[in-house]
Specification:
The protein starts with a helix and ends with a helix. It folds into five domains: 3-91, GIY-YIG endonuclease (3-Layer(aba) Sandwich); 102-208, no CATH class; 258-372, Ribonuclease H-like superfamily/Ribonuclease H (Nucleotidyltransferase, domain 5, 2-Layer Sandwich); 385-540, 2-Layer Sandwich (Nucleotidyltransferase, domain 5); 549-605, DNA polymerase, domain 1. The chain has helices at 3-11, 37-45, 52-60, 72-86, 135-148, 173-176, 190-205, 212-224, 228-245, 298-309, 328-339, 351-372, 381-390, 442-459, 474-486, 518-547, 559-569, 572-575, 580-587, 591-605, and strands at residues 17-22, 28-34, 63-68, 93-96, 102-105, 114-117, 127-129, 258-266, 269-278, 281-291, 318-321, 344-346, 398-407, 410-420, 423-424, 430-433, 467-471, 493-497, 502-504, 510-511. 33% of the residues are buried. By secondary structure, the chain is of the alpha+beta class. The strands form four sheets. Strands 13, 14, 15, 16, 17, 18, 19 and 20 form an eight-stranded mixed beta sheet that branches. It is built from 20 helices and 20 strands.
Length: 606
């Protein structure tokens, strides 16, 4: 922090306003607002941040300017204008899926007309309808309504003639075809023309239903007269009208205008799915992909995105979302000033509005699942859940889990199981005989398996896991990390403590995930699979060693008898703890043979 910044920090007031950070070249790199300039700006420089982007901003900042405002609303408007003008590199990167077009009815003119536009201008005294998901459908609807109600389609503004004797412009072709009322020729007064405009407004607002039966009769008449090209055009127009007015997933009983903001967030990325209800019908869905701005929370990002979104789009009467945007009162007041009508914000908890918001949230989550995966495959619920709950930088698509097994220190083995996007990949499982670690030393065994596994992966240029889970606590985690550090391999390593099903991080902190969460169910599934795979391998290993033991040299003891002992008691170590009578009762063998087996085992242990 240089002297200029330090001096500015001391001068900042405890008032609302906008702060502007510039680099050494004088370029604006960040614009922000706050209710208290002093508290907000000082928070950047009084600590080291977890977010690398914030640290980069602080390092790049060479000077800070600020503008004090009277209210938070003024700060919000000013911030929005400065971001649009300068496009600072550290502000929110917003990617809109598409710019949906609108229909504009130019009611500010004496003879209004219908136009296709992509930007809404507030307080221009015109009427806007939309957004329309399909631009071609919009053009067909504009053409049909203009022809049906004989509206003017001239690009220039048509004004009433000063007098009947005034010079008239050359009439358009549509006038000669009877498709235009002739406003430019003085054939109709503004008052008469306004009757047609009102009917168009009622149709687009949903107050007057479209007469599809009449249009379909016209279609049949055209076909009967072999006017196939005109019939095809009318058929496509009818389809466009039905898509807009009839084929809706959601329809309200009243012609309400509402927006539902579904959202799903993961680390530095947020996806918003905006459902637009216009005239009581769901017109479509708009996806907004946002890169989180520094260390902002979801509420702050939502506020910034809404402010910028409604610069160019119709503002509804009410906005629904699962969380309240930061500075909601100031945001709503700004929207009211911008549009001239009151705007409400709601968090629905039940009923139709709640169901529609849930649909929007689910849609945002589906988009996020695909967007987060470089392979463009839909991410499993468990992957999304683990990334969010464990605060991982990347989705843990590839997870590996290690388990150790031995019988009182003998025949130590290990298993490694793999999952890809929530599915177990049995073809990638691996088994290990522990060679260097002493039996019973689990941390040393984990270290050996980690060293062998990742040495080979690095040599073969294999895919490294996004999350590496070891069976055990902090000691096992540190053992794995020590080996990875020697290999110069950076991975996310966590331990899974069996007692309380706790995930142990390298710093010793513990994370307890809900058992009902998709992520925890996936981890338990992996751990149980590793345990099963390891125990099966250990039993086979132990049985093979026993089959080569001195017991087979005893009279009356053969492979069948040995297998019977192992199956019944699990290991020769367990057999050694028994009495001859217990062995006879369980394995149905002569007492003398049981005594010989016990005597041999005791001799081996010495």
């Amino acid at each position: 922090m240089n002297e200029k910044i330090e001096k500015t920090l001391n001068l900042l007031p405890l008032k609302p306003g906008v702060y502007i950070m510039k680099n050494s070249a004088g370029e604006i790199i960040y614009v922000g607002k706050s209710r208290s300039l002093k508290k907000r700006v000082n928070s950047y420089f009084n600590r080291i941040h977890d977010n690398a982007k914030t640290n980069a901003l602080v390092a790049a900042a060479d000077q800070i300017e600020y503008i004090v405002t009277t209210t938070e609303i003024e700060a919000l408007i000013l911030e929005n204008n400065l971001i649009k003008r300068h496009k600072p590199r550290y502000n929110i990167l917003l990617k809109d899926s598409k710019t949906h077009p609108y229909i504009r009815l130019t009611t500010s003119e004496a003879f209004p007309k219908l136009e296709k536009v992509r930007k809404v201008h507030f307080k221009d005294k015109n009427r806007y309808f939309g957004p329309f998901p399909n631009g071609i459908d919009l053009i067909r609807i504009v053409d049909l309504l203009s022809r049906s109600y004989r509206l003017c389609t001239a690009k220039k503004v048509v004004k009433p003639l000063p007098s009947p004797d005034s010079r008239k412009p050359r009439p358009c072709l549509r006038f000669h075809l009877g498709l235009c009322s002739g406003a430019c020729q003085g054939e109709i007064t503004p008052e008469e023309y306004a009757v047609s405009v009102k009917k168009v407004d009622d149709v687009l607002s949903g107050r007057t239903p479209v007469d599809f039966s009449s249009l379909e009769r016209q279609l049949k008449e055209m076909s009967a007269k072999y006017r196939y090209e005109e019939a095809a055009e009318l058929r496509d127009t009818i389809s466009a009208l039905k898509r807009f007015f009839e084929t809706q997933k959601v329809e309200f009983l009243t012609p309400v205008n509402l927006d539902f903001w579904g959202m799903s967030s993961l680390q530095d990325r947020l996806i918003f799915s905006v459902f637009a209800i216009r005239g009581g019908k769901l017109l479509g869905n708009r996806i907004i992909d946002v890169e989180r701005e520094l260390e902002q929370g979801d509420r702050e990002v939502l506020s910034a995105v809404m402010s910028r979104h409604y610069d160019d789009n119709l503002v509804p009467a009410a906005i629904y979302c699962s969380i309240e945007p930061d500075g909601a009162e100031a945001l709503l007041e700004m929207l009211k000033e911008r549009t001239g009508h009151k705007v409400d914000f709601h968090i629905p908890h039940k009923g139709q509005y709640h169901n529609l918001l849930t649909m929007a949230n689910n849609n945002a989550l589906e988009v996020l699942r695909t967007a987060q995966n470089s392979a463009k495959a839909r991410l499993d619920d468990s992957v999304i859940d683990l990334q969010r709950r464990l605060n991982l930088n990347t989705p843990p698509v590839h997870i590996e889990c290690v388990d150790i097994s031995h019988i009182q220190g003998t025949d130590p083995v290990a298993s490694l199981v793999v999952s890809h996007n929530g599915l177990l990949k049995k073809g990638e499982y691996r088994l290990f005989h522990i060679k260097t670690a002493k039996g019973g030393d689990d941390p040393a065994s984990i270290a050996e398996v980690t060293r062998r596994r990742f040495t080979r992966l690095l040599e073969e240029d294999g895919n490294l896991p996004d999350l590496y889970i070891v069976d055990g606590g902090i000691t096992q985690v540190h053992a794995a990390l020590a080996e990875l550090e020697k290999l110069d391999c950076s991975l996310t390593v966590m331990g899974l403590a069996k007692r309380d099903e706790l995930l142990v991080q390298p710093d010793g902190s513990e994370i307890k995930l809900p058992f009902s969460s998709p992520g925890m169910r996936m981890i338990i599934k992996l751990r149980n699979e590793a345990h099963r795979f390891c125990n099966t391998f250990q039993n086979k290993t132990h049985t093979k060693r026993v089959m080569r033991s001195a017991l087979l040299k005893l009279p009356g003891v053969g492979p069948v008898t040995l297998k019977k002992l192992i199956l019944e008691f699990g290991s020769t170590a367990n057999v050694a703890k028994l009495t001859p009578e217990q062995i006879v009762a369980r394995c149905k063998m002569p007492l003398k043979t049981a005594e010989l087996i016990l005597e041999s085992l005791k001799t081996e242990s010495k």
